[in-house]
Amino acid sequence: VQLIGEIKNLRPGIRCFSITAYPRQGLKESALGAGARAFLTKPLDISLLIKLLEEYSGIPVLIVEDDLVFAESLKEFLAARGYRAYIARDWAETREVLNSVTPDKAIIDTMLPGKDGPGIMRALKKRFPWIEGILMTGSLNGKLLMKEAIEGKVPPYLLKPFPLGELLAFLEGPTDS
Q1: Is 0.85 topped by the overall pTM?
Q2: What secondary structure does DSSP assign to the chain, as a single string?
Q3: Which residues lie below 8 Å from residue 22, measured CB to CB, with a gap of 6+?
Q4: CB 13 within 8 A of CB 104
Q5: How far apart are CA 125 and CA 100, in angstroms?
Q6: Which of 11, 13, 102, 115 shows a CA-CA span of 20 to 30 A to 59?
Q7: Residues of the chain below pLDDT 70
Q8: Using an 8 Å Cβ cutoff, are 134 and 173 in contact?
Q9: What's the confidence (pLDDT) of residue 110?
């Protein structure tokens, strides 16, 4: 339980299971309270473990895009490749999504209502230092914002329409899950 707490302090979004052969009173509540996603006892129910691993598999990816049709297309494309994608259309929705999801990767449009993409990326990096993000744009103003973002050491970018292979190359890059 202590180790789960320490791991969660270092990496709040990491997905942990607690497994024990000694399920003493209160241990399950303590493990779940420390951040374990599940509490399993030995001998393990292998079918339950497989179900849990499948449920929590896939890199969580946040898509922040105000064009819902484009965002849904990206989500479907990523889901077919084993990613768990979540969509937000602006900063307010991004905050809502982050109440239940801790992404490892982010794909963010530069031109969004309220807060621009580079601003959202900076906010994400502040909250989740490990997150890797990429910006995307289809407009000249977006290109200018991306230039500012790059100068501020914010992530790489893709110009819409972009080859999906370039997006996959970014997503399949380093992550310390």
Answers
A1: no
A2: -HHHHHHHHH-TT---EEEES---TTHHHHHHHHT-SEEEESSP-HHHHHHHHHHT-S-EEEEE-S-HHHHHHHHHHHHTTT-EEEEESSHHHHHHHTTT---SEEEEESS-SSS-HHHHHHHHHHH-TT-EEEEEE-SHHHHHHHHHHHHTT---EEESS--HHHHHHHHTS----
A3: none
A4: yes
A5: 17
A6: 115
A7: 12-13, 140-155, 174-177
A8: no
A9: 85
Phi and psi at 160, nearest 5°, equal -75, 145
Nearest Cα to 131, choosing from 166, 97, 80?
97
167, amino acid identity: L
Cα separation, 47 vs 142, whole angstroms: 48
Q: Which residues contact 5 (CB under 8 A, 6 or more apart)?
A: 34, 35
Q: Give the C-alpha separation, 66 to 89, whole Å.
A: 4
